[in-house]
TrEMBL record:
Gene3D superfamilies: Transferase(Phosphotransferase) domain 1. Keywords: Kinase, Serine/threonine-protein kinase, Transferase. The keyword Transferase applies. This is Serine/threonine protein kinase. One of its GO terms (molecular function) is protein serine/threonine kinase activity. InterPro entries: Kinase-like_dom_sf, Meiotic_Drive_Suppr_Kinase.
Length: 213
């Protein structure tokens, strides 16, 4: 499908049929999708993500708040260029980005579902973050819900905060937990872990970090 036809699908069949809202600035966007042809595949702090069967190798990220952040994310993708650790910017509109789809399961979901996370995934993410630094970006807000793994490789699916300044310790803290808790105690006989428990740990960590500041 030509990109012009795809853009027409976005603007005629997707955007009028979705409503994006939030209960709290610290919670992900809530997606209400009434479209019959577009599937919701996820949501983050700023946006919902959607796919269409006619082009499964693409996703559309629609911003639901902070539209100025969209312009910054566009610049981040342009700076990253075409690198194996990241998605690629294909096109963009006033409220959305068209991106190459990255296959895989998030590290968060892998823990919940008892899927082993090999060390190669952690190493891939480290290499991807080092590349981002080498081109002048600052990897920020990298955590288990915006990192995916597929066939033993790791990929970073959300770069929207890579323009920010300062040190974000989320990835370093996740690696410490991987090395000290996950690898020695969970990896070999990986049990499933209830979603509510993993989500409680995630929210507790975020609260702890906010209070520490």
């Amino acid at each position: 499908m030509k990109i012009d036809t795809y853009i027409n699908l976005i603007e005629k069949e997707l955007l009028p049929q979705i409503h994006l809202s939030t209960n709290s600035p610290f919670d992900p966007i809530i997606v209400n999708n009434r479209s019959k042809s577009w599937k919701t595949i996820g949501s983050g702090n700023y946006a919902g993500v959607f796919s269409h069967d006619s082009h499964p190798e693409r996703v559309v990220k629609v911003y639901g708040r902070s539209p100025e952040e969209l312009k910054k994310e566009i610049e981040v993708y342009k700076t990253l260029g075409n690198h194996g650790s990241y998605s690629r910017l294909i096109e963009y509109g006033e409220t959305y980005l068209v991106l190459k789809k990255l296959k895989g399961v998030t590290l968060f979901d892998a823990v919940v579902n008892g899927i082993q996370i090999p060390r190669s995934v952690i190493e891939d993410i480290d290499q991807g973050l080092e590349y981002a630094r080498s081109v002048g970006l600052n990897p920020y807000d990298v955590h288990g819900k915006n990192v995916v793994m597929f066939e033993g490789r790791g990929y970073i699916v959300d770069v929207s905060d890579f323009y920010k300044e300062g040190y974000c310790r989320k990835w370093d803290d996740l690696k410490k937990a991987y090395n000290k808790i996950y690898k020695p105690f969970l990896y070999k006989y990986h049990p499933t872990i209830p979603f509510f428990l993993v989500d409680l740990i995630r929210k507790g960590y975020r609260l702890y970090r906010r209070l520490k500041k």
